[in-house]
Design brief:
7 strands, Rossmann fold, 7-stranded parallel β-sheet, single chain, 258 residues, globular, alpha/beta
Length: 258
């Protein structure tokens, strides 16, 4: 018996065309799930779709152009996903952006709002529309669903020149707790993964000193491994995580305790 067979299961992953999202998508595809990537860049979507197709999974695949900041685009991606797969069992709210990299005295309102829009408002909009679908299913006798957000260890730590990013991810943790409590009656769970330092296109744009600082501070002494993202995603999408909800789980090599 395969404990983690996700055949017939449909997952969406926002920002799933690169980095952490693509790593999680690989695991879901290998487990047999239908996977819908919602992301902004059409070229990166096509490349991700080709990579995932090459894995030979038994489920269906689709990549849809979607900016999670725009509610109408989320609604369109939602409709297209349901038209293709008829249901959504879990949503990985993974799309995000880096902070402006400024000190608090140098912040601008425009910079602050841009970070909050993607990292905090985006997951909330996605959860709004996905949860409506899950609640409707529950009321028809088919309860259950998974909401999994990509948060950050910075939401519970202090990091120089990153208060806007930290605040946006702390908002995700709060959204997670609220969603878990509110939606539990429908057997819908909500959890946040507080990722530490992974080498991704996003972190590649950071100051090299940041990576050096991280490598010295992580107790396990290395960045996160992308292969490990596959099993992590499958576990949280699977029934084996059904009794875990409202949690903000660090996935960081011990960074948050250092």
């Amino acid at each position: 018996m395969d404990l983690f067979d996700l055949s017939g299961h449909t997952a969406i992953i926002t920002g799933g065309n690169s980095g952490l999202g693509l790593g999680m998508a690989r695991g879901l595809v290998k487990a047999g799930a239908n996977v819908a990537i919602w992301a902004r860049d059409a070229d990166k979507n096509a490349d991700a779709l080709a990579q995932l197709t090459a894995l030979g999974g038994t489920g269906g695949l689709v990549a849809l152009r979607c900016d999670v900041v725009e509610e109408d685009e989320v609604e369109q991606a939602m409709a297209a996903t349901l038209d293709r797969f008829e249901r959504i069992d879990c949503a990985f709210a993974n799309a995000g952006r880096s902070g402006a990299g400024t000190r608090i005295p140098d912040m601008t309102v425009e910079g602050w709002d841009a970070v909050q829009a993607v990292n905090a408002r985006g997951p909330a909009i996605v959860y709004k529309h996905v949860s409506r679908h899950m609640i409707e299913r529950a009321e028809q006798g088919d309860p259950g669903g998974k909401l999994i957000a990509t948060s950050s260890g910075q939401s519970i730590m202090g990091v120089n020149k990153s208060s806007d990013y930290a605040a946006s991810k702390a908002a995700v943790n709060g959204l997670t707790r609220g969603a878990a409590f509110e939606l539990a009656r429908y057997q819908i769970t909500a959890n946040a993964l507080l990722f530490g330092y992974y080498e991704t296109p996003l972190t590649a744009r950071a100051d090299p000193k940041f990576a050096q600082w991280m490598s010295r501070r992580i107790p396990l002494g290395r960045p996160g491994d992308h292969a490990g993202l596959e099993g992590l995603a499958v576990f949280f999408a699977s029934p084996h995580s059904n009794y875990i909800t409202g949690q903000s789980l660090p996935v960081d090599g011990g960074l948050c305790i250092s």
